Amino acid sequence: MSAPAIRIEHATRSSRAGLVLFAVVFVVLVAAPWWGGRQHLRLLAEIYAFVALASLWNLLAGYAGLVSVGQQAYVGLGAYLLFALAMLVGVPALWTIPIIGIVAALVSIPVAALIFRLRGHYFAIGTWVVAEVFRLLASQVSVLGGGSGISLPVGIVLAIAQGRQMREFVIYWLALALLVAILALVVWLLRSRYGLALTAIRDNELAARSNGIDVGRVKLVVYVLTAAGTAMVGALIFLQKLRISPDTAFSVTDWTAIVIFITVIGGIGRLEGPIIGAIVFFVLRELLADYGTVYLLTLGVVAIAVMLKAPQGIWGLIAGRFGWQLFPLERRVVYLGGEQPAKCA
Amino acid sequence: MAPILTLERISKRFGAVVVATDIDLALGDGEALGIIGPNGAGKTTLFGIITGTVAPDAGRVAFDGTDITRLTPERRCRLGIARSFQIPQPFTGMTVFENLVVAAAFGDGRGERDVYADCAGLLQRCGLADKANRVAGSLTLLDRKRLELARALATRPKLLLLDEVAGGLVEHECAELVALIKDVRATGVSIIWIEHVVHALLASVDRLVVLHGGGFIAAGDPHIVIRSPQVREIYMGIAAAEP
Question: Which of B119, B133, B173 is closest, CB to CB, to A332?
Answer without folding.
Answer: B133
